[in-house]
Structure prediction request, 431 residues.
Amino acid sequence: MLLALGVVKVGTVTQLRQLVLPGTADVQTVRNACKDLRDAGLVESVGKTTGTGLSGRSVSEQLWNLTPAGLATAAAELERPPGEMGGTAREAARAGAAHAVKVTDTIDAFLQSPPEPTKPVVRRTIPHTDGPTRPLTGRPPGLGTLHGWHTEVALPVTGTFTAPGRGSLRADAVLNAPEEGLPVLFVEVDNGTEPPATVADKIARYRRFFQRTIKDHTGQPVSLWSTVWQVSGREGLPPVVFVFTKQVGPKAMQARIHEVARLSSEHWQGSWHASHYTPNGEDSDGYRDYEDTVPVLATTLSQLQQHGPCGAIWWRFGHGTAESLTDALHNPDDRSAFFRREEQRREVRRATEEKRVRREEKREKRREASKWSCPTCEDDVYPDDAPDLVRGDECPRCRAQRERVAAERAEAEAEWERERRGNGLFGWLRG
Prediction:
């Protein structure tokens, strides 16, 4: 319980059960644990939240949060410096913690903690038998662990992490799960209380934070965020994930998401670079440069709870359809994808050229096999040198020479005949 509250800061016993003990028969085990921790001065309940129960009726539940002593104990449990723990969330719990409760629901929907089978506790008055365990309802695959989550994380556009300056923001939650093959995910939980322009402005401030650099020990500039979180090696800045929690119709939700995307397009869209070389007959191509842009993904809390983070529930700003998290994080039109397409085109051109060369070689072999020697000059003669050649004929050059000599002789004889006729009787006599 301390570990869970150290991460989410505030939650109901129902939420805490989902996070760490989803296999228990009911919430009483978690409630008893919270009471024990309260007696030890580590947690408290100073507020309530109202939600909808399984029957559809309004249900009020106590909110539990850490005391200062509990926060310090949770820091040791999580092996984190106390400065990274944030506050106790006492005031948020007192006010009903409407937003914090949705953040807790979001983290639970990401984790999808699998229910562990349990058996009844052995009682003195009830004989225990080794019967089958209670059947459990399965949950979709989740991602990460509680240890990988941080909430209310300061992201200083100016100032420091401990003293953020003007224009800075706080991420609702941050998931660090490199073991899942994921980059660090910055999660924003949207309850629908802010206009789209305000939500879009968060993306702009995220980008400014990610762009901020400091000097490393060698004097070289490095991204400030990379001094805290691991760099994944993927193109672009770290992704920002929006989870929309307000229960509205699909059209209204899509309209809100599209409006946020439209207002923030300069921060996620990337710049288009056309290819300078386009072979004849091929469509023009190019790529988008995402090096300085923020990948933005969106989904709803209900979709995340129903299908889990691995389901095809993510709409990446700029993509055309809902995708899995892996596909949504992929850039199908980035520089590396363009280079892959270029290599594929080069392979096609190489294969085409190799086929042409093989055809030429076969044609040349057939041509060499059909040649003969010219009976006059003994040069090679090929059937395709002239359309009327038959095997054994002279080469076109010799035949042309012979025909030219014959033509010249005929012309000379004709000229002589004309001259003789022109001289009259004496010419005939001389002839």
In short: The first strand starts at residue 10 and ends at 11.
